[in-house]
Amino acid sequence: MLCRELAILTVDAVDSLTLFVQDARSSGRGLQLFSSKVYGAVYLIIAVNECTMNTLSSISSPSSSIFSWALTPFYSRPSITREVIREAFVDSMITLAGLVENLILLAEVELMNIDRLEEHLSLLHVLTVQEDTAISSAKTELLRYIWTLFGGNRRMLKGYDKNLELLHGIGGVRRQAWAHVTLTLRLLKQLRGDMEVMQKTLSSPKLPGVPISIEAHIRSIELGVERLKDSRAIARKKDEEDVSKKIFDREGTKIIYVGSVP
Q1: CA torsion, ordered 54, 59, 64, 70, to nearest 10 deg
Q2: CA distance 31 to 36
Q3: 28: which residues sit within 8 A by CB, 6+ positions away?
Q4: 54-91 as b/e, with b when 16 or more CB fall inside 10 Å?
Q5: What is the phi/psi pair of residue 117, to 5°?
Q6: Does an H or E element contain 96, and which?
Q7: Tens of pLDDT, residues 16-45
Q8: CA-to-CA distance for 55 and 64, rounded, in angstroms?
Q9: CB burial class (10 A; 0-12, 13-18, 19+) of residue 205?
Q10: CB 214 within 8 A of CB 82
């Protein structure tokens, strides 16, 4: 009876672990694609900002000299050129804001995928605890009668030991994966918050009184981009520092790799 229950638990645990591995692979590919899109958006925003600042610098030189106005009375006012640049900059930011919004939606999808991984891990942990208890009971029962068999069931006992070792290892896998999923969730939420702040800054209406210069808007965007880059750098550093662990039996026939989910 105990062996039958143990076999059922083993099948359930294998099925749960298989689903976890499949979803982990899918989530990993999704997170890698998401990370690439984030970096692409960051570099595009930086390029637009630099292009705008360079253009503004090129038209600000003539206005810096009083003599240029006296020598060239028909010189077109820089404010007109700045207005054209401002309109082009705003149009570019509207397009980039749409790109950021798509990234936010993609981040929410990845968060749901990670939540599904968490559910698999919780179920796997429950099955692992149950199977660990069942194997321990079977081992105790076997030890009770082993003296009458003169060591005939030592191979079976050795198999129980290996299963116990693997189950304890899976518990370690669960803790490792849980820690990484938690970190990934926190970084994604921080990333989404940074994106929302950036989007609100880009779409904020003009304040009454003195208008905000293009340079001020660009500086505000740069601060948001820097926070975005810092959060991704932290995630990458954590991923590089995460040492993969291996759980294997004595013959090396079963290997479970524990690494970062993304």
Answers
A1: 170
A2: 9
A3: 261, 262
A4: ebbeebeeeeeeeeeeeeeeeeeebeebbeebbeebee
A5: -60, -40
A6: helix 78-145
A7: 666 767 777 777 677 778 778 877 877 887
A8: 15
A9: exposed
A10: yes
Q: Where are the domains of the chain?
A: 2-258
Name the DSSP class of 224: H
User: Helix, strand, coil shares of the chain as percentages rounded to 5?
Assistant: 80, 5, 15
Give the H/E segment covering residue 122.
helix 78-145
d(CA 71, CA 48): 34
Using DSSP, state whether 245 is helix, strand or coil: strand
Contacts 24+ apart (CB under 8 A), 253-257: 254/166, 256/169, 256/170, 256/173
Residue showing tokens 């990993």 = 28
Taking the C-alpha atoms of residue 132 and residue 143, their distance in angstroms, rounded to an integer, is 16
Q: Quick: pLDDT tens for 167-205.
A: 455 445 445 544 555 555 565 565 556 545 555 554 565
Place of tokens 């038209």: 59
Structure tokens at 254: 């079963």
Residue whose pair of structure tokens reads 């982990």 in the numeric block: 24
